[in-house]
Amino acid sequence: MRDKESKPARTGAVAKANTVLEEDGLLVIALTTFAIVLLVTLRRSLAGDGWLALLAGRWIAQNGLPSHDTLTLMTYGRQWTDQQWLAQLGLYGIWRVGGITLVLLAHAFLAIAALTGAALIARRHGASARSVTWIAIPAFVAFYPVAIVMRTQSFALVLFVATLWLLLDDARRPSWRVFWTLPVIVLWANVHGSVLLGAGLVALAGLVTLARERRASARGIALVFAPWACMLVSPYATHLPAYYEKILVGGDFSNLITEWAPTTLERSTVAFFILVLGGLWLLGRTGRAAPAFDQLALIAMAVIGFQAIRNIAWFALVALAVLPPLVDRLRTKPEEPRRLNRILAVSMLCIALVAVVGIAVKPASWFAQGFPARAAAATARAAGTRGLVYATSGYDDWLLWSTPQLAGRVAFDARAELLKHPQLVEIARIGNVAGDWRAALRPYRVFVLNPRSDATLERALRRQFPLHVVFRSRQVVVLRRG
To answer: Does residue 390 register a pLDDT over 70?
Structure first.
């Protein structure tokens, strides 16, 4: 009897899956293509921020939440507001279970889930699969450069889409479910500093509510003010205002760190400009069809995208969720080639599965090719028990992760918010071999550089100091003053 009952259930599930593949086949193909590209380029995901996340997660697991820095020379003893502690602990926990391979696969899953969630929002609000796919193509290109990097932001991508889903649904069918955004903000406040964007979107929804109701309703007021209070639900509550002030305006990161620089028209940002201009054109043609919150959220995130390169990914997610229904306002929905969609979608899903298996069986060394273990060991030997190490950005946290005995002797790491402005300027001058860079490097015994991007600095160091090469590969060179 049980077998007879389960067979129709299985048949119904297969029929439903076939319907999805036939109706949404083009979108499934697009999403799986992005997933495959992300997977096969996954070894590019390891960078300074990722090593910092693992390093800080290990520190928290062994010592508890940090309060003052003991990892790098320039910031030693300085107050460390570790706002991202929960995501760091989560990534380290994943590493304990499955090593760096599982960490990077989890990162890829989160990035793909965020994109898929944004596409599903558009479908939920009536967009055809073909219109979602058209917007998805430039959105993927704009999203990829930021999303490829494994870091604590990987968790925030999913939280951003969850918040956006609740707010866009509420703009069409107001309900008290919108207040589920508040616990999401609480979680997000312990994961990544981009929680500012989530709180801003919730507050924007509250302002739209107040304007629509034309009165000071409790619902609108709560949405305006509650998310900012939720941002302070953290072990670092009293220190977070100063932390956010530093990363927003006090750190001058936009002039010194590439990711924080304003977005300008370059080959890598063309997709962003296409989405912005296309989105504004669609709003101009069909703006009345979109709720006020959709329009304001899209414009606000475009402005934020222009403020910093690292914000482009957030705009791409909003554009993918908001713009496809507007495309369908301008054209008749085409008839889908259902059988062809199903065949191609199943084929792409099989290729994606093969890619996942192929990546999962790769050794850890495949992912960390840019960070050879022998280079870290050579650095520790060259530094000895007291020698100071100057590593260019990207290698610092990896060295501290690989050789914990260097704690307190590496110049700086990816936590730019801990550095004072003169220190950031000094690091920039060293990288550009400008100003009094020689005096700044005089205390250091060992230098860890990228042979390509730091070639000018390496040549200048060789002219200035007697140096011995203790390790060299295509990815990293370790030099010791002798």
So the answer is: yes
Residues 385 and 440 in one domain: yes
pLDDT confidence of residue 253 = 72
pLDDT score of 14:
73
CA dihedral 262, 264, 270, 274 (to 10 degrees): 80
Pairwise CA distance, residues 416 & 64, whole Å: 22
440, 383: one domain:
yes
User: Do residues 148 and 238 share a domain?
Assistant: yes
Q: Residue 68 pairs with which residues in a beta bridge?
A: 79
Of the three residues 335, 354, 379, the one that is the final residue of a domain is: 335
Query: Is this model's pTM higher than 0.85 or not?
Result: yes
Q: Which domain holds residue 328?
A: 112-335
Which 3 state secondary structure label does DSSP give 147? helix
Residues 273 and 143 in one domain: yes
Tokens of 377: 């060991």
- Name the strand (E) or helix (H) holding 317: helix 312-322
Helix (H) or strand (E) segment spanning residue 472: strand 467-472
Q: Count other C-beta atoms under 10 Å from residue 207's C-beta.
A: 15
The answer to whether the beta carbons of residues 421 and 252 sit under 8 Å apart is: yes
b/e sequence 46-78, b meaning 16+ C-beta within 10 Å: bbbbbbbbbbbbbbbeeeeebeebebbbbbeee
Query: In DSSP terms, which residues pair with 477 in a beta bridge?
Result: 449, 472
Do the Cβ atoms of 254 and 421 come closer than 8 Å? no
Q: Is residue 380 domain-shared with residue 311, that is, in the same domain? A: no
Judge whether 396 lies within some domain.
yes
Residue 364 backbone zone (phi > 0: left; psi -120 to 50: alpha; other: beta): alpha
8 A C-beta contact, residue 141 and residue 275: no
Q: What is the pLDDT of residue 332?
A: 74
Would 81 be classed as within a structural domain?
no
- What secondary structure does DSSP assign to 115-132, as a single string? HHHHHHHHHHTT--HHHH
CB atoms inside a 10 Å sphere around CB 294: 24
